[in-house]
Amino acid sequence: GGFLVISGPPVQWPKKEREWEELQAVARALCYELIIVEGNTVIWKKPDRDPCLNPNEFRIGLCDESDDPNVAWYVNLKRCVTPSFINGGYAIGKIPGWPERLLRAPSRALIMNNGIDLFQADTRRWATRVAYYKNTLKVKLGTPAIRNVMDMNAFFGGFAAALETDPLWVMNVVPARKPLTLDIIYDRGLIGVYHDWCEPFSTYPRTYDLIHVASIDSLTKLPGSRNSSCSLVDLMAEIDRMLRPEGTAVIQDSPEVIKKVARIAHVLRWVTTINNKEPESHGRGKILVATKTFWHL
What we know:
Blueprint: E1 3-7, H1 17-29, E2 33-38, E3 41-45, E4 61-62, E5 80-81, H2 100-103, H3 115-135, E6 148-151, H4 158-161, E7 169-175, H5 182-187, E8 192-195, E9 208-214, H6 232-242, E10 243-253, H7 255-267, E11 270-276, E12 286-292
Parallel strand pairs: 4-5, 6-7, 6-9, 7-8, 9-10
Antiparallel strand pairs: 1-3, 2-3, 10-12, 11-12
């Protein structure tokens, strides 16, 4: 039931007639409903049922059952359409409206083992933790100082959901080596991407006012292993590149990891404080709150 809007070439564009015809043919093969063509803009509506696939010259077929539609990192593109696992459950009009969808466990959470319980616990945990960030650690969330925010280890997007009433937006990043939960983030009405944090993130430097990361050390690890595929130093340098001068970094991990992070932050000329986790939280974790200083050679 979603909408596809294409504006510009090849839509009714001079000398692009063949490409425009092919684009329309692909849309027909996928059973997309044409809503309007006006000037150089076209709008189609995707069917809200399991994939409809018309005979076509493009060799587009149904994906194999073994294909995981959530896997989007280091995989080749395929000319196939993925069936829905929960018939119609993802369609616009089937999921709750905003803002109810933000806090209600989506149908795709059912695919995970204990997914509903995990979702609800994650939502409660981040509501408590964000209140602690604001009230005790005095992080300037909810103020005009912070608009562009990134969560580097988003999982279900609970951190972003807890900031619903604040005048900001959150880029939720799901590490490509961790459970692939980006679909649930989108079902909540949030935005996000997959990324391997041992590679540079595609963004302009000095973009984010606040960068948040829980379990930073895990972002450098190979799945199911204690071995690292990159160094914590490299990851911290990448955070520094993305963070705006005088921006804030909030990093949570074990005391041992936070101690390492603090040493690297000092080299980066960040001003840091190390804090205990919120009283309601169990475990030995610490929270580093840092400000990137404005300096030049």
